[in-house]
Design brief:
The chain has five helices and two strands; from the N terminus they run ββααααα. It is mainly alpha-helical. The protein has one domain: Ferritin (Up-down Bundle). Strands 1-2 form a two-stranded antiparallel sheet. α1 packs antiparallel against α2, α2 runs antiparallel to α5 and α4 packs antiparallel against α5. The longest helix is centred in the C-terminal third of the chain and has 30 residues. The radius of gyration is 16 Å and the shape is elongated. The chain starts with 5 loop residues before the first strand and ends with a helix. The relative contact order is 0.19.
């Protein structure tokens, strides 16, 4: 039965999202690897923007965690695809995620101070919810390679902790 693969890139403070439909077939491991890697790059870029703009210690600490953790998972992903001789395959989902993220970083570049901090932290909650859902509902179940599936499962656990940490930062910023 044909299946639609959807990932929403929830990158706006108002939780606006971009839904991207994949071809009717399930994504391949090469596409899954590219989507997961791209999602990590997006979060690293957002965190680097926060490190450059924020003066809030909670936001800075969180952003450093995002750079460290997503960088480490992406390094593991690159090592795995090299070991497996798989070339990550760009696809409509990863392209749309990248385009939406670039636009939202440009929007956030116009913000400063508390407004930036709130927008960044709220986006991190929404973004991690979206990525966690895509991992749990599509990317992990559709991955065929056991090592890729294991890496995605490990990433999911870590990213769920990121979501909780982002919620804590949002709560602190609201006070």
């Amino acid at each position: 039965m044909p299946r639609t693969f959807t990932i929403a890139a929830a990158l706006m403070l108002a939780s606006a999202s971009v839904a991207i439909a994949q071809p009717a077939a399930s994504p391949t491991d090469a596409q899954i690897a590219h989507i997961a890697y791209t999602a990590g790059l997006i979060d690293i870029a957002a965190a680097k923007q926060a490190l450059a703009k924020s003066k809030n210690p909670d936001v800075i600490s969180f952003a450093k965690e995002m750079v460290r953790d997503h960088g480490a998972v992406n390094d593991q992903a690159l090592a795995l695809v090299k070991k497996l001789h798989v070339t990550p395959q760009d696809n409509p989902t990863s392209k749309a995620l990248t385009a939406a993220a670039a636009q939202h970083r440009a929007d956030y570049a116009r913000l400063s101070g508390h407004a930036f901090d709130v927008a960044y932290a709220a986006n991190e909650v929404a973004y991690h919810k979206t990525v966690d859902g895509a991992l749990a509902d599509t990317l992990i179940p559709d991955s065929q390679n056991a090592e890729l599936k294991s890496l995605l499962q490990t990433g999911l656990k870590l990213f769920q902790m990121h979501e909780q940490h982002a919620e804590e930062v949002v709560a602190k910023l609201g006070k």
